[in-house]
Design brief:
By secondary structure, the protein is α+β, with helices and mostly antiparallel strands. The chain is 40% helix and 15% strand. Helix 12 packs antiparallel against helix 13 and helix 12 runs antiparallel to helix 17. It is globular and about 65 Å long.
Amino acid sequence: MTARSFMYGLTDSLVVLPDSPGGERASRRVPHRAPQVVAHPSGRPWLVGRWAADELVVGGAGDVRIAAFGRCPVDSARLAEAARRVGRPADLDALARTLPGSAHLVASVAGRVRFQGTATGSRPVFTARLDGVTVASDRADALAAMIGAEPDEDLLAVHVACGPLVPPLSERAWWRGVHRVPPDRYLDLAPDRAGTVRWWTPPDPVLPLRVGARRVREALREAVAWRRPAHGRLSADLSGGMDSTSLCFLAAEHTPDLLTFRRTEGGATNDDPRYAAEAARALDRAEHLELLDDDGPPVFAPPYSLPDTEAPHAFVRGLNGTRFQVRWLVGHGATLHLAGHGADELFTGGAAYLHTLIRRRPLTALKHLRVHLALGRWPLLPTLRALLDHRDVRSWWRDSADSLTGPPPPPDNPRLGWADPLSRSPWATADAVGTARRVLREVAAEAVPAAGDRGRHETLSCLRSAGPVLRQVVRDHAAEGLRLDLPFLDDRVVEAALAVRPHERNDPWRYKPLLAEAMRGRVPAAVLDRRTKGDYEELVLRAQHRHIPDLLDLFADSALAARGLIDVDALRAGLYAQQGTALDDVSPNLEMTLGCEMWVRETRAVRPADPVPTGPPPTDTRFPVG
């Protein structure tokens, strides 16, 4: 696959190079024509790629340069001040733990480079070896183009066979020879070597709810306050849920003429519109936009496409609708949009925290357990076995491999393990399942928990699974001219929430108690006290069933089937047989299969070849200020 094959489909990307002659040679293979360049203090190219004018801020002092790449309210003067106190990459830890917003932090320090993303993985770091030199980027497909990488067929098989996965497997790059740095580690890049260093650890969850809620409110208020468009209008989702409504009221504090957006879709039991209407009445100076059920293409409607080639898209079913909505908002003057994505993962935990709580605070755990037993209709004996289970995270991966072809666990079984059980796609071939089982066992040999107990591990795994997926959604919006920001995924907001005691953050008597407490007095009580969540299952299932013929037309000439990964007849039988089942039984594996199908079609059009230079060696050694 040549660099030239990718350069016209690749949008903004940042390639980070070592301060060495090899790094300078590698700069000629960055897959952009006339790339932008920022130099090391030595004059060699350091940052090469394409980015918006307000997306990169650089400051320096002496032989140190520091850059923030993304969305961060920092100026070059602050970075220059920080640079004066830096003598080695590790000296940037304090800055990394205090920067607001969502951005990569990159530094060139006396010939060494530090490159890190965000704790949730919404801004990742990828590496590859090019002619013996380690290079890095925020995009896997940029590096794939530089080194002529092939798709990772093993990863393709395991996702087709198992559907959505959890870290660390969900964090692998989709290209052979391209590797992803774990979100809690940074890349330490020297001219002759490269390694990773841990920079982030989750806070100890010791704060009581009221104290933690104040910190969450402060972190959210700061995260929203600086997010103002330089031109155009600020818009925000107002679905009626607690997440988007909270952001709307915080944004209205500095933008009273906010543009809010909602759709009146969902099933008959969906009560989001009622709560959205109540919130809209309280936001009396905002302009409220509303799309009706039939406005725009429904989910699963063709044509099916893939925005870029970095990885299969998790939400192919809704891409056409997203494009329609974004264009509609842009037509109303919106240039920056806020959405509450990520809040479910942050404020709605599973029940795995009970596994630790029963050992540390048994009386509190028993009170919580009674509620879970009643609401979830958990059978008593399986619940007790799950609470007494002492297997580590590696055992979970081994057991997942062993049980991949077995019957699924009963739907009412308590989910107190390291992650939810994997669900085998009924249309996966024996070869795909065999490859998946092998990969799962390979992961089991090296897996480590994201935190010391199951509850915190579960929360971090959910956040780290959501971060890369939501990053694709951000790029979908950007492709249509609208910047999408997700304040709930900011590191400082995540840290504020994770510092609260798990049994108070996951109170089974209340819905999102931490966020509700944080926004008490600012958001209407009716929204904060609601015990329901918007129900869109009926809408999605209805659309999926309506478009089964379109899906089968697509898979009639399946690239996955040509690779021996899916059985199209089994897919057809499964889609028709599953009509009327719950959304969770159908959609996740179907969407992953659909995303993989489109990704393979995009990437099979070109074959591996020696990468070619994309232009003359960079010579611009200036760095932007401000």
